[in-house]
């Protein structure tokens, strides 16, 4: 291996992953393997204020999405030269995870992420967008695959794009009543991101800007991770199953979700030919336009349904 691609760190600065609380920083180091390929090490906590274990003793699958987000940002800042003051916009994010590989007890908390950057768009020397494809392993065993499409926007361009919307930065947002935590697979009401909607089958996005994990810093729009959590909670609510485990999630984002206008979350169960999974399509709409959509699939009978199919896809 060419020596110039060697080098690793055992400390990841919070600004590289856009997190300030050390408990929310999952990557622990990285190594450049080739020009556009990297290995990122991460540590998943056995307990976390938000990403707590689910279904008894399983890591939260949405940890995969957050690990994808943080690993992509880390590589972009640390290795691709993206300035720390630039804004990231995820156009899409998806993953497939082996549920049986999520067990918390008796296994290492260390996760290795193999990350390949492609379709890198540059303007001069600046990276303006890229695709990241990732393979996550744990104890040498395939854990998940994932991908993300991201765009990087300079601070000046972002101010121009957002304009007067930047006035919402740090502005208090009224906290609407949330649904009962147990209906969305949560134990604490502060983690609930859904409130009553205007009609049956619809819920309003509940924005809690004081939530230290979902709103890691003052923002002028709703962070993408809040929308992913809304999708998961809506899927849990509409299936009526507190054991809904989003082993597969594919999400796309079409515009910013604003803080000052209701965002309506609308889930619907998707009928598929596969009886071993339950699939839900969740869309978010604001001011008459679609903001995002997510398709989530869960083993229909919990872990009684083998994860072998997932493992074969991951291994292949």
Care to describe what's here?
The structure is a single chain. Residues 1-10 and 302-316 have low confidence and may be disordered. A 12-stranded antiparallel sheet has the order 1-2-4-5-6-3-9-12-11-10-8-7, with helices on both faces. It has 316 residues and is an alpha+beta fold. The two termini are 25 Å apart. The longest helix has 17 residues, at 62-78. It has helices at 14-17, 62-78, 155-162, 224-239, 308-315, and strands at residues 27-34, 37-43, 87-97, 110-123, 126-138, 141-153, 194-196, 203-205, 248-253, 263-270, 277-286, 289-299. The protein contains 5 helices and 12 strands. Strand 10 (263-270) and strand 11 (277-286) form a beta hairpin. It folds into 2 domains: 1-153, Thiol Ester Dehydrase, Chain A; 169-316, Thiol Ester Dehydrase, Chain A (Roll).
Q: Oligomeric status of the shown chains?
A: single chain
* CATH top-level class of the largest domain: Alpha Beta
Helix-strand pattern, N to C? Answer: HEEHEEEEHEEHEEEEH
- Spatial strand arrangement across the major sheet: 1-2-4-5-6-3-9-12-11-10-8-7
Largest sheet, described in full?
12 strands, antiparallel
Mean pLDDT: 88
Helical content band? 10-25%
- CATH architecture level-2 label of the largest domain: Roll
Structural class: alpha+beta
Strand portion: 25-35%
- C-alpha termini separation: 25 Å
InterPro entries: AfsA-like, AfsA_hotdog_dom
Protein name: ScbA/BarX family gamma-butyrolactone biosynthesis protein
